[in-house]
Design goal:
The chain is mainly alpha-helical. It has 12 helices and 2 strands, in the order αββααααααααααα. Keywords: Glycoprotein, Membrane, Transmembrane, Transmembrane helix.
């Protein structure tokens, strides 16, 4: 009896190893521990804290990256859009932008900014012929990003300890095994929850690709200019960071389901609003509002999917998270593949479709998990002797 009580105390909550710290999930308790069953695998406490730090660093890097791009392109003149009807949901990436110079590569307002020493017209003609003046700020921005990447590579190469890919083989050269790839496919085929979470995981990649690729071009660049993209995306990154931290802490009190419902309302409502909204250059505050709402929904989706995978697949973590990255990457591929050929309203419809399907199938995962835990606890109470 003491063993049953101790087992019940040790396993009444599930510690989620992904997201922000160790998050308990009282809404989805784990079955009690049984000596005859395989014990739940415990996660190393060190990566939990490191994951939190890594997420914060990634968000901060997004903020600094957007700030750099906005600063570099800040020399671009004011809005020159003459056809706002082609922006927003009506934006067609295949149509020529004859009346919208906002979509052109950034150029200097005055030649003196490029030629401060008063170079001769012949040199200026040569530079313009080879396209050096119009691409100057693009090259500067790419140079800054490449420089940051080189510094990061050198830092990792010099300071990071060697990583052993296979923990079971501490000696010798560890190689990436084909077993992990086969285990990933086998896990997807045999696990019903994994199959049900496929659409939601794909949407995780699609929504990130849409906000960074389509929203920035169809709405921000087209209506108010490319030099405002960084400022709007900074708002997105700040809200994403704050909500990621807050929601990762609050999940232990309310469970996963309310947050996924909130994400569905945020992203679904924002997508419908973007479908109906005609962007205007005189009302720039709405660009920041939509970016903030999307960042809030993205914070929920990223943290809660990570936490859900860590909770559901404790016995096969590697294969589960390999599936998570696989299907999320497929979402990125799909979104960027149709980005250059479809009208924005069609892309919004596809986003809403994947979101609806993902949340619909997630509901079955939630119901299945709660019924399973309810049966386990009912069975355990029947076996427990009365005092």
């Amino acid at each position: 009896m003491e063993e049953q009580i101790l087992g019940l105390e040790n396993n009444k909550t599930s510690s989620l190893s992904m997201g922000y710290g160790s998050v308990e999930s009282p809404k989805n308790p784990q079955p009690p521990f049984n000596k005859d069953d395989e014990p739940h695998k415990k996660t190393d406490p060190v990566p939990i804290g490191k994951t939190k730090i890594l997420k914060n660093v990634l968000v901060v890097s997004q903020i600094w990256g957007n700030l750099i791009s906005s600063t570099v392109f800040a020399v671009t003149p004011g809005n020159t859009t003459e056809d706002l009807d082609s922006c927003g949901a009506n934006f067609d990436p295949t149509a020529p932008a004859a009346n919208n110079s906002n979509l052109d590569r950034p150029e200097d307002e005055e030649d003196e900014l490029i030629y401060p020493n008063g170079r001769c017209n012949a040199d200026r003609y040569v530079d313009n012929y080879f396209g050096l003046s119009s691409d100057r700020w693009v090259y500067i921005l790419c140079g800054i990003y490449v420089g940051c990447a080189v510094i990061a590579f050198c830092t990792i190469a010099l300071l990071l300890d060697n990583i052993t890919l296979d923990k079971k083989q501490q000696t010798g050269d560890a190689k990436i095994s084909v077993k992990l790839f086969l285990s990933t496919l086998k896990h997807w085929w045999q696990s019903t929850p994994q199959k049900l979470l496929t659409f939601l995981t794909i949407y995780s990649g699609i929504e990130q690709a849409f906000i960074t690729g389509d929203f920035t071009k169809s709405y921000i660049s087209c209506a108010i200019g490319i030099w405002n993209v960084g400022y709007v995306m900074i708002c997105y990154g700040v809200v994403d960071a704050i909500c990621s931290f807050a929601f990762g802490r609050l999940v232990q009190f309310v469970g996963h389901a309310p947050f996924f419902l909130l994400a569905f309302l945020l992203h679904g409502g924002t997508q419908v609003a973007l479908f109906l909204w005609q962007p205007e250059a005189d009302n720039q505050i709405l660009f920041y509002v939509f970016a903030a709402l999307w960042g809030m929904g993205d914070a929920i989706i990223q943290t809660q999917i990570n936490a859900l995978y860590g909770y559901l697949f404790t016995n096969n973590t590697e294969a589960a998270f390999a599936n998570y990255r696989l299907w999320e990457s497929i979402g990125f591929i799909l979104a960027f593949a149709w980005s250059g050929i479809l009208v924005t309203k069609v892309k919004l419809g596809l986003c809403l479709g994947f979101l609806t399907l993902g949340m619909f199938f997630y509901t079955f995962v939630e119901i299945q998990d709660r019924r399973k835990n309810q049966r386990v606890f009912t069975k355990d109470e029947d076996k427990s002797p009365l005092f």
